[in-house]
Amino acid sequence: SYSPNFHFLDLNFNRLNNITLDIFGQNIYFYISNFNLKHNRITFLNILYYENDLFSNNLDFIPIKQFKFPEMIKLILKKNKIKSLKEESFDLKYRYLAYLDLSFNKINLIEENTFQYLNMLKELDLSHNLINYLNNTFRNLKNLEKLSLKSNQIQIIQISLFSSLENMIFLNLSFNQIRIIQEKTFLNLKNLIDLD
Question: pLDDT tens digits for 170-190?
């Protein structure tokens, strides 16, 4: 039987609404590492691969992650319609994720344990959302090096918010509505080079 031998699947700039495992077959996991779906109209997706670019679609939730390809390291959900991040949004199946882009969505709620399994995460972009409150949101992200919260509606930076981010190098808090930064908030950020 014929076995495809490709690693990059580019379906950019189409009119796709739904992507399911059924259209590819079960063995497709062995052939795709980069899945590019920019500029479509996707509202439902139940397959993800090693690197996934879903920039500018209509997703209003974090896609369901299948068990068959657990080593996903990159997920771009920039410019979608996601409004909230729940505790169950990123379960253990996302544990190898190193890069996560959720910028330019409509996120106004991030539950406290949303990122509890993302211990390998190095870069997180939450810029250009509607976030106004964060409470211990990043406490399990011990390997995080780059965090952007630019252009949100954050008013108060609590002392515990960044306390476990000892590997943080870059932190962007610009263009918020910050009124209060509690004393010693940045004390544990010993590797911080760039604070904006």
Answer: 999 999 999 999 999 999 999
